[in-house]
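User: My instructor asked us to take a sequence, write out its structure as tokens, and then describe one feature of it. I'm not sure where to start. Here is the sequence I was given:
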Amino acid sequence: MQFQYTVRTKQGEVQSGIVEANNEQSAIEALQARGLFILNLTFAESGPILARKIKIFQRVRQKDIVGFARQFSTLVGAQVPLLLCLQALAKQATNATLRDVLFEVAGDVEGGMLLSKALANHPKVFSDFFISMIKAGEVSGNLSPTLNYMADYLEKQYYLASRIRGAMMYPAFILGAFIVIAVLMMILVVPKLTAFLTESGQELPFVTKMIIAISGFLSSWWWLLGGLIVAFVIWLRYSLKHNAKVRYLWDAGKLKVPILGKRVFQKLYLTRIAENLSTLITGGISILRALQVTADVVGNVVFQNIIIEAQEEVRVGNQLSASLARHKEIPALVPQIISTGEQTGSMDIVLKKLAEFYTKEIDATVTDLSSLIEPILIVFIGIGVALLVASILMPIYNLGGAM
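Assistant: Let's start with the prediction itself. The structure tokens for your sequence are:
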């Protein structure tokens, strides 16, 4: 059960959030154990229905976590007490969900809980990678540099993902707009011209007949087509989360997409693997644990399976480079560089260099694609418009000439 609370700290600050407990008395005891003075405590589901629905749709974006990690690293590096860091960041958080979570984390830390344990209570907000890095910093006593490594990593990954997403957004918008306009013409404009052409009695070209047939289908069954598309999207989103076979086929298919598969997606996952392992090893985490965390956050089932298999190989005493070299999805360069790191004892350094290499490769590819996409779109849209105009206007023009 969840209870919404409003409390006052020993410093006189008023905080609010949600606490989980079996009953109201347990919730009161949990809050008092943190040294908090309870001002109000209500059953969470007793609030307004609309507010509860809005709460369901609130989520913490990657951008919010990146900003929190950098600010947290800066404050801890400035030797600000941990509890004050969390409270200050919670107050200035613009995301309501993250603000509530940080207040709860601050309350747990004030009650004597380790920071890593407090963060682990919110797995939907903080990844296994994030928690592992915090735990490594606590164990080694070097929380400040560990937070700095983590903030650098999260910023690099966010920049890389944003770079790719930004490059794809323009062509996706243009293509989507063209499809919408074409469908509206098929539904609203073409049927009016179709009646005129049919009454003329002339033999229509094959392309014109095809356009008229498509227009007739869309005019009569647009609702069915729209429903099928929505149902397919819902099914796909559900299957990607709950059906391992569909998720594997989807992730494997991404690696085979022309141009993007090998030049962008594959290098993106390789960058994540190298950057994750480098950051975790630098933070003092064992190679086995680093491989497990990397498998969880790589974001592709194909590479996740490769990393899990490599973890088992390392567990029994084999080299990581030898395990990776057996997979066609891993370029020969990767195991060669990792082998150098294994021999010299500088795995974190060579992995960091490998991540930097692939990041530059992705940047160069995205830049090239951005310059090529616009002329390709212009040609594609021009062909589509020409086909649509020729199939409808040419018969009308021929009819006018015959008259």
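For the description part of your assignment, you could build on this observation: Residues 1-57 form one domain. Try explaining in your own words what that tells you about the chain.
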